[in-house]
């Protein structure tokens, strides 16, 4: 996932954005879930969602067997967006979206590794910070009232802008490594193949760049992340 995460936000910039930016920084877990509901719905509306009959949807349904059916206590809601973009993301409300471009690039083991990574950002609390940053940087700063009031005033365009900023959020190196480890541990617990994490990073290293899924982040470099996952496999833990 390009806007900076909250831990990297510039305090002076937030002061310039006005009081609602500070409200955004104090959003509760419930607020974040509510905003995720609206953001995900906005993205679904503006994206081409693969129907149940689509080979992509059917493949994803098979691939996620053994993967979590809840995310932080929320029912996992998996859908495919039909686009050549290589991306995937997850939100605190259980919304998990995988792009067909990613599915074209990855085999099922690699796909599960990417999904586990994105779920990791939610489980480890990283996406809460990303949503706070997105709210502070989006049109929400023009709204008035309490944090709850701001949420209640979200228009379709605001929800869409919030979603875009959330999806483009950039996590820190520490957060990316922690999400990598979360995916590795998740696959280990589910007795699923972990090698896909290694080969997924190797493929992303060849693509280069830092756009798309947070798995695509070049911090730390994809080749180094692949080597670290292979080292964990070799160590048997």
Automatic annotation (TrEMBL):
Domain Peptidase M48 residues, every copy: 58-232
EC identifiers of the protein: 3.4.24.-
Cofactor, how bound (note): Binds 1 zinc ion per subunit.
A Gene Ontology molecular function term of the record: metallopeptidase activity
PANTHER family the record matches: METALLOENDOPEPTIDASE OMA1, METALLOPROTEASE YCAL
Sequence similarity: Belongs to the peptidase M48 family.
Protein name: M48 family metalloprotease
UniProt organism field: Variovorax rhizosphaerae
Organism lineage: Bacteria, Pseudomonadati, Pseudomonadota, Betaproteobacteria, Burkholderiales
């Amino acid at each position: 996932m390009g806007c900076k995460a909250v831990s990297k936000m510039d305090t002076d910039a937030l002061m310039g954005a006005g009081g609602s930016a500070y409200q955004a920084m104090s959003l509760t877990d419930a607020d974040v879930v509510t905003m995720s509901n609206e953001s995900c719905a906005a993205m679904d509306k503006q994206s081409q969602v693969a129907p149940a009959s689509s080979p992509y949807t059917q493949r994803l349904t098979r691939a996620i067997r053994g993967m979590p059916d809840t995310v932080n206590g929320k029912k996992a809601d998996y859908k495919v967006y039909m686009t050549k973009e290589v991306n995937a993301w997850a939100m605190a409300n259980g919304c998990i979206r995988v792009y067909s471009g990613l599915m074209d690039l990855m085999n099922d083991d690699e796909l599960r590794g990417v999904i586990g990574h994105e779920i990791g950002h939610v489980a480890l609390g990283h996406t809460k910070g990303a949503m706070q940053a997105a709210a502070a940087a989006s049109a929400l700063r023009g709204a008035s009232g309490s944090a709850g009031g701001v949420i209640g005033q979200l228009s379709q365009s605001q929800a869409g802008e919030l979603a875009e900023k959330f999806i483009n959020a950039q996590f820190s190196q520490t957060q990316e490594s922690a999400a990598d480890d979360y995916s590795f541990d998740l696959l280990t617990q589910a007795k699923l193949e972990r090698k896909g994490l290694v080969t997924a990073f190797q493929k992303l290293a060849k693509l280069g760049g830092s756009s798309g899924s947070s798995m695509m982040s070049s911090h730390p470099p994809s080749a180094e992340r692949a080597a670290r996952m292979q080292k964990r496999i070799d160590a048997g833990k």
